[in-house]
Amino acid sequence: MKKSRPMEPLDIADADLRLRAVAAARGAAPFDTLIVNGILVDMVTGEHRPADIGLVGPLIASVHAPDTRADASEILDAKGGFVTPGLIDTHMHVESSMVTPATYADAVVARGVTTVVWDPHEFGNVHGVSGVDFAIRASRGLPLRFVVLAPSCVPSAPGLEGAGADFDATTVSSLLGRDEIGGVAEVMNMRDIIEGKPRMSGIVNAGLAAGKLVCGHARSLAGRDLQAFMAAGVASDHELTSGADLMEKLRAGLAIEMRGSHDHLLPEFVETLNALGHLPQTVTLCTDDVFPDDLVKGGGLDDVVRRLVRYGMKPEWALQAATLNGARRLGREDLGLIAAGRRADIVVFAELTRLEATLVVANGVIVAKNSAMQQQSPQTDAGEFQASVKLQPLLPDDFRVRSSGSRVRVATIDKPRFTHWGEAETDVVDGFVTPPEGATLIAVAHRHGLGDPAPRVGYLRHWGTWKGAFATTVAHDSHNLTVFGGNPHDIAIAANAVITAGGGMAVAAGGKVLVLLPLPVSGLVSEARLDAVADGFAALREAMDKVVEWQPPYLVFKACFGATLACNAGPHQTDRGIADVTTGIVLASPVLDIIA
Prior knowledge:
Blueprint: H1 15-25, E1 31-41, E2 48-56, E3 59-64, E4 72-77, E5 82-85, E6 87-92, H2 101-109, E7 113-118, H3 121-127, H4 129-139, E8 145-150, H5 169-176, E9 181-187, H6 190-194, H7 198-210, E10 213-216, H8 223-231, E11 236-237, H9 243-252, E12 255-259, H10 266-276, E13 283-286, H11 292-297, H12 301-310, H13 315-322, H14 324-330, E14 346-349, E15 357-362, E16 365-369, E17 372-373, E18 407-414, E19 420-429, E20 432-433, E21 440-445, E22 456-461, E23 469-472, E24 481-485, H15 488-501, E25 504-509, E26 512-518, H16 530-547, H17 559-562, E27 571-574, E28 577-580, E29 585-587, E30 591-594
Parallel strand pairs: 1-4, 1-5, 6-7, 7-8, 8-9, 9-10, 11-12, 12-13, 18-22
Antiparallel strand pairs: 1-2, 2-3, 5-14, 14-15, 15-16, 16-17, 18-19, 18-30, 19-20, 21-22, 21-24, 23-24, 23-25, 25-26, 27-28, 28-29
């Protein structure tokens, strides 16, 4: 009976493979593949040096002087290009690109990304353990290496919101017992960790007991809170807010996952690191979230490296952060370095500014040439995941707040992203509260069939003047139906378009749907081609620009997806009302007092 091949990284510990590589390295046997005429970018020394690279199966057997060997079954000409290890994205969410793992893989592998660390907490929040099962199943056999993590925050703020599942420490521990699970995904419920509450402490301890990664989300943590968060066992952060924040977290000893999804901060990070004078070995790179049109135009982690270089970082530093530093963070000694005995994940870039990949080798196999995949990756059937929106059609009155009296004092959610509580006085007309002057309506409806589906309505301030509405089932992290708008009629139209589509996003104005982007798989992703999803999302963005005027960096379209992230400090609208993780307050209605 033939033995099944062991999982990575044990697969390259195979004795026969190693003996073949040893023989090839010493010249007693030919290489399977020989890469010639390349300039090796050394991730240890930072040198650029001519070198040929001999491969045996998935293993690098030799890195040697040019033109000293020609014995190989296949010779690949790098044509003077720069040879680097495959890029490693240390924190990302496939679902943010709104396509399947196979589609995502084909988009980024062709650009030189060979490993991603995937937190599938979007699928987990919608489907529970079966969502993680799907993530594992859908990422098998692809040219992109997926390190799948166990979601730690399902939901992100228990008691304050309802998701499609609930992962306690027992659930996470069970997931961590699987070989396919690489660790605990970003621990977002910071306050419960800092206060030593049993649920989140148990989840972190499960990761520590399994000897696997425990990844963090430490936005705005400093001083004692940061030290307490780390003392619990959390070891990384991607939620940097400034150069000073970067330095404090470097000094604290966190692994830094410097993300590309907040581009406005990258120049400051580059300036901070350049002033430091060297690249700390704890700095890695990640994408976190990449929208589909950005994925088509810019790519994945390669785009982050490209932008860092454009903002003034040395290419060698950016590449080291994206390769060797990332591999060390993952504890993967087989990755991140082009050296004998390491895994053959190799990229040839034509130059180090535009970073156009002319050749990509993954596990010793040529998977892409000239930024195009050699073959399309197989898709995994989504099956029952295409029926995740369990809501009936809604009426405009469902998006109004009922109250007695003639005048009331209401709570408001002020400011995008870094929210805080506000108050306003307003009138009650015909039993409904008149939204405070300048307020934007937000409503969240539980869509998973496990709670009250009636929309909970709140008022946002400093979100601009809305001339229509936006509805989405992509709403971090419980992914309930979330709607924003200036009037209940357009809100109901947008919401019902999304419900009918089985999930997705819609923009409505003037009593009609302007754009609908169906995302029928889990209400999060589409099985359509990337270019079709990207075009649909670009059209939706364009429509949104006509509905509301954005004021970057905080009042931007992306803020709509994070407006319900209840684990972050401050008030946030959820399917249970206005919730505040810091105080534990949940207001089912924004009405605070009846004044008259």
